[in-house]
């Protein structure tokens, strides 16, 4: 009986379009169990149509097995999602109705689990922030400088605003460290003596750590055993 019902609801539909509008069969099938054939290798996927998207021109299908209990909510299903571009869909077959809000119209609004609208403004802001962070990170890397110079920059940048100006390190827009980045390479205006002293201390500690801990212990004499017969 169940097989008869399954066959009666099935229908193969070709997808010649590259967009899905509100009247399309794919849009109305959101939340239903479908089987799709995909180019270029005629791969077949069966699962729940989670969403269709005209922004990315793709669908998302959850191929996790349907719960053994037909009345179990789709929220309890494990997720195994695949993103399929519209252009790769050769055809799809509706093999069973999905769980929907009672008396709801076809499409997203009645799908279960519910599908929230994507906040495109928030996504755009997140993208722009990521780009700013990447540019800031790139600006922290010296161009054509030695490994030690970069280590000095990173050490100072942990506690003070620091930037590169070609091969020079500018600290707090007050102190300049020129190659070869020694204590004698520090320069600052006369009214920035406090900043200069601060940076000098950081640089002194950096070189001290590179030398390793100081050893002031006196050498230990090795005892010599008494000679026999002496």
UniProtKB/TrEMBL annotation:
SMART domains: AD (SM00995). It comes from Pleomassaria siparia CBS 279.74. InterPro entries: AD, Lsm12-like, LSM12_ABD. This is AD domain-containing protein. It comes from the Eukaryota. Residues 116-211 form the AD domain.
